[in-house]
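agent: user wants the full assembly modeled, not chains individually. Plan: 1) parse entity lines 2) check alphabet per entity 3) run joint structure prediction 4) return tokens. Steps 1-2 passed, two entities, 600 residues total. Proceeding.
--- entities ---
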Amino acid sequence: METKNYITSYCSIKSGKVNVNGKETYSDINLSSVDFIKSVYKQFQLNYPKFYKMDHLCKLAFVASDLLLKSNPIMQKYAPEDVSVIIANSASSLEIDTEHQNTISDKNNYFPSPAVFVYTLPNILIGEIAIRNCIKGENTFFIFDKFDADFMGSYINSLLNGSKAKCSLTGWVDFYENNYEAFLCTVEKEEGILNIEHNSEQLNKLYNN
Amino acid sequence: MKLESYIVADNIISPLGFTSSENFEQLKQKKTGVQRLETSELSSEPVCAALVDTQKLNSEFQKITANNIEKKDFTRLEKMVLLSIHDCLKQNSNIDITSKKTLIIFSTTKGNIDLLDPKQASEFDKKRVYLWETAKIIAQHFNNPNKPLIVSNACISGVLAIILGKRLLETNQYDTIIVSGVDILTHFVVSGFQSFKAISNEVAKPYDAKRDGISLGEGCGTIVMSSVIRHPSSDIIVSGGASSNDANHISGPSRTGDGLFLAIDKTLKESNVKASEVSYISGHGTATLYNDDMESLAITDAHLENVPMNSLKSYFGHTLGAAGIIESIIGIHSMLENTLIGTFNFNELGVTKPINIIKNTESANINNCLKTAAGFGGCNAAVFFQKVQNN
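--- prediction returned ---
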């Protein structure tokens, strides 16, 4: 039985631009990747002191998810265990992995740190989003060479249709060697105000926008 | 009709052996793979860890590639995966890895992370540290036509990959799923856990009053699941599974166990099983103070405190992305042999709530097995295996 699900909000952050639900809400194309992400945090006054402890990948995931859920406060509608967070990227945590590696490569300058090492797993960004929003449902981090709308679309639909989740926060968050890209969306069973069906075609369209 | 997920082949590559049976035999004899390494490339100080012998790995690998015309170099990690999948294919000739209906799911936390080390990097292309590149090379080696799925979700990766395999079989997009989990011991990982002061100076003591940290390990586990093929001599299915997040802390387990409880509760409900019907729990049991306490709370909340439970981390060490799969395979073999494996190095219970930790290996009727896992990022997962009663 095919049941339709809907993309009820989306947020993308790339190339110095923030786009929420199809509207460009902020841009500054002159900043470096890290500075741009910090400027988004300040611009929207996200006010979350833990932000400064996070690695670049989590910072990016944090600002994208916060702007997304500000536009669509799903946690007011769903129980914590009914919301899933399913996110993917290409570079895993290689950005901070390289940083950790640099702390251990030289025996005479050896300084591994738990504050760095803890971020050497890509799913930590799911943990950060879960903590911020009190989300306790299904969570999985996937790795693909590029955004795979076919798999993500059908897997999220199967979670919602199979009653594994009532709502899903999903998408792509990648950060490596100064390249960054975030695209997150919420998927629900009701149309919402956007009325965009959740399928691979629509995901690709919004992701490439 | 619901499509079931049958276990049709399995393999473990670890310091204890290169097949599941070899590993299970060693466990029955209470032999651990964890050793104190006085000197190693892993650490400037002595460290307890379960290391696969590289010479043995290379010689076993040579056997499976001897007739291969295409001479390609593989990393240490890739060799483990190729050997592991190869053994599964040998066990069950009905598995067609070249079929469009067969998918490989790859579970790992760090993949070829050793290639980030400038001393190792020169031998391989830089691209090889990307997990999708590693997975692609594995799929190509077996002429599998599908793009492999990769799960990288800390220490629950392996359990998640099995759950995912079951869910994909149910959609009928694939009829056979090969789930392979692997992680290797590296200076990268050891130095990180040392910085956390999380590694015990001795072999880990799960759930014990004197536990003081983890032992790390390496290895590969592969489970082949299918909706159309059967195991030649057994009928075990994956009947449920779920994951959850504590939403509490990125590096510390929940103080209440509510996240793990949620995953267990959803898993048993999906499997249509009551707590009183559970035969055996293969716990996460890392032997850190907080993890084992947390598990005892979740297990008690789920009314499973009397169910025999063990941790295998003192045999294999913590094999990270492989752990959920290796430990599930031991659970499956425990069911097949009706044998509960005693927890190595466990003497006196020392967790918040009394739970039933198996001390000595013993016979028992085991109809099913609940496998649990928890990891950094606040994630938890559970999966349930059941014997199918034949008509």
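agent: reporting back. The domain at 6-208 of chain A is CATH 3.40.47.10 (Peroxisomal Thiolase; Chain A, domain 1). Chain A touches chain B through 51 residues (CB under 8 Å).
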